[in-house]
Amino acid sequence: NAGVMQNPRHLVRRRGQEARLRCSPMKGHSHVYWYRQLPEEGLKFMVYLQKENIIDESGMPKERFSAEFPKEGPSILRIQQVVRGDSAAYFCASSPPSDYLYANTQYFGPGTRLTVL
Amino acid sequence: AQTVTQSQPEMSVQEAETVTLSCTYDTSENNYYLFWYKQPPSRQMILVIRQEAYKQQNATENRFSVNFQKAAKSFSLKISDSQLGDTAMYFCAFMKHGGRGVGSQGNLIFGKGTKLSVKP
């Protein structure tokens, strides 16, 4: 049973470019979460999605950031016009459907390290 | 708003010894979940142990156990027989119960972490 997959693992962008981060949840998982980790910090919640729906985006910056989880394919976190302050590790996590016993448990991918030059 | 505090930025322990990492949290919720995750140098976030607040019994997973004190809002992690592979950042995390379905879905709130070094 493959774990949560994220790609790319490392992404380098120049200021003003777009960054697209992909996340494939564990098989059977229908909930996806995105978190950001700045150096020497814990993870900060950004957005929570189910298939085709954004459930909670309270941690997402209002501008330049967007996320989707289409019916088919991976979840995408998109950052437009990147700035140096966007440099961070971005983690995706997934969890099973709500009627599962451990639906509350999130399993993390390996993360994408974004560097903005 | 919920907060999670880890008061020990760094700790070290000798191989085969026991170490306890502290975590306190603040919430007005009665139903919630608590987790410990470890992040080794590979940066992968790995679930160590989880605790449901409604359960009085402390969770255990092999060499890892917790001391959950609900009234004190304390959730410490004990690692017994420490191994070199336990060297990592350890994060305490809180999730409130959404009240829908068997489980709940919601975001995790993390502490700033404790850097644990296991020395040979």
Describe this protein's structure.
The complex is a heterodimer of chains A (117) and B (120). With 117 residues, chain A is mostly beta strands. Chain A has no helices and 11 strands. Chain A has strands at residues 5-7, 10-13, 19-24, 31-37, 43-50, 53-56, 65-68, 75-79, 88-95, 107-108, 112-116. In chain A, the strands form 2 sheets. In chain A, strands 2, 4, 5, 6, 9, 10 and 11 form a 7-stranded mixed β-sheet that branches. A 4-stranded antiparallel β-sheet of chain A has the order 1-3-8-7, with no helix packed on it. In chain A, strand 7 and strand 8 form a beta hairpin. Chain A is globular, with a radius of gyration of 14 Å. The termini of chain A are far apart. In chain B, 0% of the residues lie in helices and 50% in strands. In chain B, strands 2, 5, 6, 10, 11 and 12 form a 6-stranded mixed β-sheet that branches. Chain B is globular. The mean pLDDT of chain B is 91. With 120 residues, chain B is an all-beta fold. The chains are: A mainly beta (117), B mainly beta (120). The A-B interface holds A 31, 33, 35, 41-45, 48, 55-56, 59, 89, 91, 93, 95-96, 98-108, 110-111, 113 and B 4, 33, 35, 37, 42-47, 50, 91, 95, 97, 100-113.
Quick description:
The complex is a heterodimer of chains A (117) and B (120). With 117 residues, chain A is mainly beta.
Helix content of chain B: under 10%
Which regions of chain A are unreliable across 5 or more consecutive residues at pLDDT < 50? Answer: none
Output the radius of gyration of chain B. 14 Å
How much of the polypeptide of chain B forms β-strand, as a percent range?
A: over 45%
Give the tally of β-strands of chain B: 12
